[in-house]
Amino acid sequence: FSGPFTDVVTTNLKLRNPSDRKVCFKVKTTAPRRYCVRPNSGIIDPGSSVIVSVMLQPFDYDPNEKSKHKFMVQTTYAPPNITDMEAVWKEAKPDELMDSKLRCVFEMPNENDKLNDIDASKSAPVLNTSKQDGPMPKPHSVSLNDTETRKLVEECKRLQAEMMKLTDENRHLRDEGLRLRKVAHSDKSGSPTALALRDNGSNSLPSLLVVIAAIFIGFFLGKFIL
């Protein structure tokens, strides 16, 4: 029997009849008040087996106390047309009885198993509490957010500087286009339409770059504010 013995502990006995005749059995114990046996008697057919449940009642276990509890399984061939089991045992002769004796052994769980159970019970409330309260913010995650914010701010400043640079280049190219127009007009070379196309071609690319830069700045500023 394996403890702890604060509740009913059950052990099963398997009785098998290897003969070609019916066998009557009876289970006895030296401590009938401490055990409940089901079934405690019966008949086993030839080649069949029966499971007997032995239930030990709760008690205060003392490891220094040696167990003196014993069981005995008695068997005898069943007479033909049996009707009264008690009469069979009363009328059976000693040489017709067969018996097997068993000694009870009580075992407590290993001390290491106890420590593991205690550690598991201590850790369980901590896990449950963490699930109920939810995950706590970690300092590492906060530092990552600060780093990402700094990167966005730096990227925004870089795009602003790039936009200012493109604006200056746009102004410079526009002035250069006006100067070339005056030179072409003074030299009377080329048509006004060609000069207009040249002027528009020189001004369209910087303006487009300025618009693209403004879109990137708006995107990063919106992400930073959110």
Automatic annotation (TrEMBL):
Residues 1-107 form the MSP domain. One of its GO terms (cellular component) is bicellular tight junction. Pfam families: Motile_Sperm. It comes from Loxia curvirostra. It is found in: Cell junction, Tight junction; Cell membrane; Endoplasmic reticulum membrane. Endoplasmic reticulum (ER)-anchored protein that mediates the formation of contact sites between the ER and endosomes via interaction with FFAT motif-containing proteins such as STARD3 or WDR44. STARD3-VAPA interaction enables cholesterol transfer from the ER to endosomes. Via interaction with WDR44 participates in neosynthesized protein export. In addition, recruited to the plasma membrane through OSBPL3 binding. The OSBPL3-VAPA complex stimulates RRAS signaling which in turn attenuates integrin beta-1 (ITGB1) activation at the cell surface. With OSBPL3, may regulate ER morphology. Its main location: other. It is a single-pass type IV membrane protein. PANTHER family: VESICLE-ASSOCIATED MEMBRANE PROTEIN-ASSOCIATED PROTEIN, VESICLE-ASSOCIATED MEMBRANE PROTEIN-ASSOCIATED PROTEIN A. Keywords: Acetylation, Cell junction, Cell membrane, Coiled coil, Disulfide bond, Endoplasmic reticulum, Membrane, Phosphoprotein, Tight junction, Transmembrane, Transmembrane helix. The chain crosses the membrane at residues 205-225. SUPFAM superfamilies: PapD-like. Residues 149-176 form a coiled coil. GO terms for molecular function: FFAT motif binding. GO terms for biological process: neuron projection development. Residues 114-143 are annotated as: Disordered. It comes from the Eukaryota. The keyword Coiled coil applies. This is Vesicle-associated membrane protein-associated protein A. Belongs to the VAMP-associated protein (VAP) (TC 9.B.17) family.
